[in-house]
Design a protein that fits this description.
single chain, alpha+beta, Nuclear Transport Factor 2, Chain: A, six-stranded mixed sheet, 3 helices, about 20% helix
Amino acid sequence: MTGPEEFAKLFAGAFGRQDAAALAGFLAEDADVLTLTGAVLETAAEAEAAFAGEFAGIFAAARLVTGKHRLRMLGPGACVVTQRFVVSGARDDQGAEMPRFGAILTAVLTARSTGWQAVSLTFSAAGQ
């Protein structure tokens, strides 16, 4: 990732491809993560495993439609990205498609030698 402006778009693309490894690649090794299913994780490796589990189940065919986006620079090398999404294609335990729902992604990004990475990422359901 070359800059924080791309983060939400790249996240949505990886989510739509059900690419847990790509999502984990956006995270710092010691990132704090909260997923849409409520998993609370403390490393990129834990997040990758959780995303893979979600993509094998509820989000196997899910897609994200982007809504309002905000990028706030906190200073040189640090920012907060907030992105609203509509999630479609989620499936319940019986395989039936669930109604679309709103979600919000909030990520604290820092510039590191390897590029911009999220040190904290919260992806949660949001009211319309």
